[in-house]
Please model this.
Amino acid sequence: MRSVSILGATGSVGASTLDLIERAPDRFRVVAVTAHHSVERLADIAKRTRADVAAIADPAALPALRVALAGTHVRCLAGPEGVEEAAAVPSDLVMAAIVGVAGLAPTLTAIRRGATVAFASKECLVAAGDLMMAEVARHGATLLPVDSEHNAIFQVLEAHNRSAIEALILTASGGPFRTWTVEQMAVATPADAIRHPVWSMGAKISVDSATLMNKGLEVIEAAHLFQMPEPQVRVLVHPQSVVHSMVAYTDGSVLAQLGTPDMRIPIAHALAYPDRMPTPAERLSLERMATLTFEPPDEQRFPALRLARQALIAGGTMPAILNAANEVAVAAFLAGRIGFLDIAALVAETMAQVSPHPPVDLAAVAAVDDAARRAAEHLIQCRGAAV
Ligand code: MG
Model:
C-alpha cells in the first residue's frame, strides 16, 4: 500500500491521478489533497478518498472548507502555509501538480523531507531549477517526471550510460496553430488557442502549447532534470504525439517511448515506479495510425521557443523572469486584454527590462518573479493605453 499526497488535486493532472488511484484502491491510500480555490471540489475529493488533510490555497476559503467537511475527520488547512503543511504530511509519494510557480514552496517542502516527488509542476523547475536540483541532492529526494516528454526520456535514459548520450529529443505536437500564418495567429482567440488538437489539458498549458512556450519551458525542465547542456536538448515537431520523446546515443541508437496521448500513462508510470500498473488508456495501434511525421520547429512563427533557450543560456534568474512574464501574459490573453502574438512579445520585452540576479536562492527567485510580474503588467497597461 503506497500513501500519496496530491498537490493540485482539482487540476487536470490531479484528476487523472485520482482516476488511477480510485481504480486501484488496494495499492494506494490518499493522505493529503490541496487545491487553489475550488472548495466544493476539494471537499468532495477529500471525502471520496478519505484523506487525512485538505488544504486550500485561498486563506479566505477556510470557513467554507470547514463547513463542506463538517462531520468528517479531514483536517482543514488554508493559505500558502496550509498547502506547505499538507506537503509536509508524511507520505510515500507526492504528486506535485500545482500549476505555475505557486507550486514551488510546497514542492520544496516535500523535497526537503526526502520524499519521492512525482513532478508535474514544470514552472517550478524553470523558475528555480538550480535551487530545486541542489535540494533534491541534499535531502536524497527522488524526482519522477510526469510531464509526458520527460517521463518518456526517464523511461529510456540509461543512467549507467550518461556519457554516451548525444541528445535528448523532446517531441512537440506543434499545438493548434502549427499550420497557421502569423496573420491568422494575430487574431486568434483564447477559444482557438485552447482547442488543442491532441491533448486535453488545462487552459494555461494549452495556451503555452499554442505559443510553443510549453516546449521552451520543457527544454529548461529537461536541462535541469537530466543535467544536460542546452545544445543537447533538441525539439522535434511531431503532430501525432505518439512518440513522446527520445534519447539519442553516441553509437547511433535512438530510444523512444511511444503511447497514445493520455496523461494517465506517464502518471501511472510515476505512481507505480519502479513497478508498472494497468491503466484504461487507449492502446496504441500503429497500423491504424499508418503515418508518423516529424518536422523542425519554426522559431520565426513561434519565438517563445527561442526566448526560452535564451533564458536557459543566460541562467541565474532569467528563466524565472521568462516564466513570470509568461504567466502574466497568458492570463492577460485569456482575459481578452492582449492578442495572441503579444504573449511572446511581452515576455521578450520583460526579459529585456528586468535584470537577472546571479545568486539563485528562494528569496532571489521570489523577488525577481515579483519584479517580472509587475513589469509585464505595466507593459500590458501601456499597450492598452496605446490602443
Ligand atoms: Mg509536456
